[in-house]
Amino acid sequence: MNVVMIGAGYVGLVSGSCFAEFGANVTCLDINAAKIEALKAGNIPIYEPGLDSLVERNSRAGRLKFTTEFAGTIENADLVFIAVGTPTENEGGHADLKYVYSAARDIAQYLDGYTIIVDKSTVPVGTAREVKRIIADANPQADFDVASNPEFLREGSAIDDFMRPDRVVIGVESQRARAMLLELYRPLNADQAPILVTDLESAEITKYAANAFLATKISFINEIADLCEKAGGDVQAVAKGLGLDSRIGSKFLHPGPGFGGSCFPKDTRALVKLAQDSGASCRIVQAVVEVNHEQKLRMVEKIVRALGGSAQDKNIAVLGLTFKPETDDMREASSLTILPELLRRGANIRAHDPQSMAIAARLLPQAIEYSDELYATAANADVVVLMTEWNEYRGLQLEKLKRFMRGNAFVDLRNVYDQSIMEEQGFSYSSIGR
Fold first, then answer.
1. Does the pLDDT at position 347 exceed 90?
2. If you average pLDDT over residues 329-348, what whole number do you get?
3. 28 assigned to active site
4. Is the pLDDT score of 191 beyond 90?
5. How many CB atoms lie within 10 A of CB 293?
6. Which residues contact 29 (CB under 8 A, 6 or more apart)?
7. Which of 157, 177, 270, 363 is the most buried (most CB within 10 A)?
8. Cβ atoms of residues 425 and 398 within 8 Å
9. What is the maximum span of the chain, computed from C-alpha positions, in angstroms?
10. What's the CA dihedral at 346, 348, 354, 360 to 10 degrees?
């Protein structure tokens, strides 16, 4: 089976490499020539554990190729996946679909024989039908179907998520498209992965609804953490009590500095706008968006309190910049809100991250310093802020860390450490909801 992935970014590259691992002949097509040349040379443009070896193995076997050319690529495809970005529009909060629709117009020019066009990007309901209209208008003779196959990949564990998914969702209109997509995913039958085949609209809504529900759990536990701090209680005990209920489950009940990344922020905003445009109520998700923004600002106040009430001329050491560990993704990371506000209040900031410092330097104010050495980050620091729970930060040599510092404050925004142990080591320790 010949598969083309339009877009060699996070979703396209991971999905394409995994399809190649299943035995399909996959071509990743991207208009970014520098990215394609890097991939041909074996250089992976994103950090995702295991992806480099997966790309290398399938490229060497001839099952995975890279190109910038639509001509000569689309004509031979059985399935063409659209896996381009759908960022938030500058105004309004809607998903920006210009890259999806541009891909559809480009695909239409080269269709030759029956082809399935599959929306892999996260798109609002109705997008698949609009893609179908665009292609039919541009090439009235084309023999094709449009399908929706949303991705549910977690950054940092994307390959495992693809190979051993909780579910695969396929939205189709024809039995022909259904049969071909089921054949593509047939290797998952050995793991008995649930495959839901439904209509186009239901598949599109499922993706947004899933991300919004997970984001809701995060904002919910962050609000409960705030309640625990003010009324008394330990949010970790509360979260365990909630998670032991099989109707709720324990995942995504971990308090932190607010969610970020490529999916939850833009997808919750897009779902709110989609509901408004459709005349439906989406007040819960709207509240989730607001709570998440407020949570990041609450973390600023927590850090300032640890500094005695003022950040002016204080030295802050930040451990972790990405929105989660095991990724170099800085999109809508809490650090992008928290650190500029601390700078505005007069703080001096030095930061460390195992993967993203070069990216962070392009996104954060130039006043921030970066340290390649973990403990040197804390040199002369009044407070250490654990922002992202990378494994390197879970077993810090606390005595060594404290020797580097000027002060003794430690703000743990991921609740990694035990308060009694930190206090025994001489730290003035604060965390979330405890």
1. yes
2. 97
3. no
4. no
5. 14
6. 4, 5, 6, 7, 8, 66, 67, 68, 69, 70, 73
7. 270
8. yes
9. 75
10. 50
Helix axes 283-306, 335-344, angle to 10 degrees: 40
What does the pLDDT average to over 158-162?
Answer: 95
Q: State the pairing for strand pair 64-67/144-148.
A: unpaired
Cα–Cα distances (Å) from 10 to 17, 39, 45, 263, in that order, read: 11, 13, 9, 12
Is residue 273 within a helix (H) or strand (E), and if so which, with residue range?
helix 264-278
Mean pLDDT over 295-300 rounds to 98
What is the structure's pLDDT at 321? 98
Query: Among residues 18, 28, 228, 263, which one is catalytic?
Result: 263
| pLDDT at residue 262 in the model | 86
**Residues 108-127 pLDDT 10s:** 999 999 999 999 999 999 99
Q: How far apart are CA 293 and CA 260, in angstroms?
A: 10
Cβ pair 338, 300 in contact under 8 A = yes
Measured distance CA(76)–CA(208) in Å, rounded: 32
In three-state secondary structure terms, 193 is coil
Output the pTM of the full model.
0.91
Asked if 67 and 73 count as a contact pair (C-beta separation under 8 A), the reply is yes
Residue 117: strand, helix, or coil: strand
Q: How many CB atoms lie within 10 A of CB 392?
A: 14
Q: Is 232 left (phi over 0), alpha (psi -120 to 50) or beta?
A: left
Of 118, 173, 172, 117, the C-alpha closest to 143 is 117
Comparing CA positions, the residue from 219, 275, 11 lying closest to residue 119 is 11
What sign has the CA pseudo-torsion 352, 353, 354, 357?
A: negative
User: Over the Cα atoms of the chain, what is R_g?
Assistant: 23
pLDDT in tens, 123-153: 999 999 999 999 999 999 999 999 999 999 9
Buried b (16+ CB within 10 A) or exposed e, 224-256: bbbebbeeeeebbebbeebbeeeeeeeebbbbb
Domains in the chain: ranges and CATH: 2-198 (3.40.50.720), 208-290 (1.10.1040.10), 296-430 (3.40.50.720)
3-state secondary structure of 411: strand
Question: What does the block give as tokens for 13?
Answer: 């590259």
CA–CA gap between residue 262 and residue 242 (Å, rounded)? 27
Locate 3 and state its tokens: 């598969």
What average pLDDT score do residues 305-311 get?
Answer: 98
At 210, the pLDDT band (50, 70, 90 cuts) reads very high
